[in-house]
Amino acid sequence: MESTAMALMERIFLTVFPLVAIVGVGFLYARARHTDMAVANRINIDVFCPALIFSVMSAKSFDLPAYSTLAIGGLLVVLGSGLLLWPLCRFLKIHPKTFLPPMMFNNSGNLGIPLLVLAFGEQALPAAVVLFLVENLLHFTVGIYIMDHRTNPFNVLRMPMIIATIAGLVFSSFDLSLPQAVQVPVDMLGQIAIPLLLFALGVRMTSVDFSNWRLGLWSSILAPASGLAMVFLLQPILQLDPVQFGYLIIFGALPPAVLNYMVAERYNQEPHQVASIVLLGNISSLIIIPVVLAFALQLS
């Protein structure tokens, strides 16, 4: 029993520490030297992440129907979290446009993909990418619509990540393959995405605003709580196998995505409040994620 507990603790440490280490390097580097990640982030979103998505989804081993129920679960967790917390906006005295998007749209890119891969191995990468795509697609449709009802949701079809998804699914469905001379550089570009996402998160941590710490503290509890509540409410209906149930549990517990701050800044929707929610939520995840991870790993 003791050896099993020690093995579990070691696995959690080996999962969480590499993430914290890379985020820490980004944080320390940005503290020592002014670091503008705008260009690097744009390249990551436009080039490296699409390369990773295409590489995963075009693989012959990728089986989309195997992840369809998980994708539905991810969609319902995102939307359900917003519905669960909507009534609390009045209690917290905050505008729903400020509070609900960070509660709904989690850090499935910067944190979710590397966390699932390190915890469950490379076999979890397709599931992690599927959940990331579901969350991102909702963020750029429902999330933007929340900010501005005049937004055209079909603009999402021009996003490189969506184009890469469609292309990957076409290649997978028709059993197509790229020449090795092309596939190798695509795979190499995709491998840049995850560490760069983590490094960028560390850089962003240097701008933590503690002036709205009470709201940030509430949010750091409510974001994972609402996500996990939805996961456990949905499981009797979805009937996911233990491994995919574990994936969805971790997805539900993830902190708010950094992208929420960028969107709030673009639409001038109290960006300082959103920054506090996002960054304190990500800091508190250092405590919450290991606990949730321990539970999820015991299921698999």
UniProtKB/TrEMBL annotation:
Keyword annotations from UniProtKB, A to Z: Cell membrane, Membrane, Transmembrane, Transmembrane helix, Transport
One Pfam assignment: Mem_trans
Spans traversing the lipid bilayer: 12-31, 66-86, 98-121, 127-147, 159-178, 184-203, 215-238, 244-263, 275-297
Name assigned to this protein: Permease
A biological-process GO annotation: transmembrane transport
InterPro entries noted in UniProt: Mem_transp_PIN-like (IPR004776)
Transport is among the record's keywords: yes
Membrane topology annotation: Multi-pass membrane protein
Signal peptide (from-to): none
GO cellular component, one term: membrane
Principal location listed in the UniProt entry: membrane
Organism field: Marinobacterium stanieri
Cell location: Membrane
Keyword Transport: yes
